[in-house]
Design a protein that fits this description.
This protein has 219 residues and is α+β, with helices and mostly antiparallel strands. Among the domains are: 57 residues, Orthogonal Bundle (Arc Repressor Mutant, subunit A), CATH 1.10.10; 74 residues, SH3 type barrels, CATH 2.30.30.90. Helices cover 42% and strands 18% of the residues. The chain contains eight helices and eight strands. The longest helix has 23 residues. The termini are far apart.
Length: 219
């Protein structure tokens, strides 16, 4: 059984792989460790059969992918419990779920999922893998890709920046929130958006991390 540290690495590699080829440097940045530490850990992961190297990229093996999806499942169910039952805010839940996820046995995880009535996504809109490892793809595009005048609905928000989550939460911008894009400044400037009658400025970098679908109706 992998250690908590190994699980964190596999989870990080999995999430990075959703955006493209995974390199050691982004792993180090995401984990908050040095390059040599990542290099040593990747060698261990490779020796244990969890990852393989394809040129300069790090790729999860089938065994590594299964472990990564399992820890992602535990993390996102933990987040739902922390937010829905214990009342933590969505910006607080991510860090605490990182601690809780490693201690959940399969039996407790199954009971917790049933208690929560089998949620499909975490509080940030990311899909919760099924017990047999199936991950549903979330459709949508970054908010910054939409022009002024469009009505959109938030479906997912990047979960790894606590400050950004707190900022969006203060404006009521959660998955399911309907947003009108009022103005898009040129030269990668901010977006002016309307949420529940209030207008806010959203930086382009933040808007790039908010996944939305066009239209205001729930699907």
């Amino acid at each position: 059984m992998p250690t908590a540290t190994i699980e964190e690495y596999l989870e990080t590699i999995y999430k990075l792989s959703e955006k493209g080829p995974v390199r050691p440097t982004p792993i180090a940045e995401a984990m908050g460790v040095s390059g040599p530490t990542v290099t040593a850990t990747l060698k261990r992961l490779e020796a244990d059969g969890y990852v393989a190297r394809e040129k300069s990229a790090v790729v999860l093996t089938p065994e590594g992918m299964a472990e990564a999806i399992d820890i992602v499942r535990r993390h996102r169910i933990s987040e739902r419990f922390l937010v829905d039952v214990l009342g933590l805010s969505w910006d607080e839940a991510h860090e605490d779920a990182c601690r809780l996820e490693h201690g959940l046995s399969p039996r407790v995880l199954e009971a917790l999922e049933q208690f929560l009535e089998n949620p499909e996504v975490c509080p940030h809109g990311h899909p919760i893998p099924s017990a047999d490892g199936v991950v549903t793809k979330v459709e949508g595009a970054p908010m910054c890709d939409f022009a002024a005048g469009r009505q959109v609905r938030i479906v997912q928000v990047s979960e790894d920046d606590e400050g950004m989550l707190a900022y969006l939460g203060s404006m009521g911008m959660f998955p399911g929130t309907r947003v009108k894009i009022c103005e898009v400044a040129p030269f990668k400037g901010p977006l002016m958006v309307e949420v529940d009658g209030a207008t806010y400025a959203i930086g382009r970098e933040v808007a790039d991390r908010i996944l939305v679908v066009e239209g205001s109706q729930e699907t």
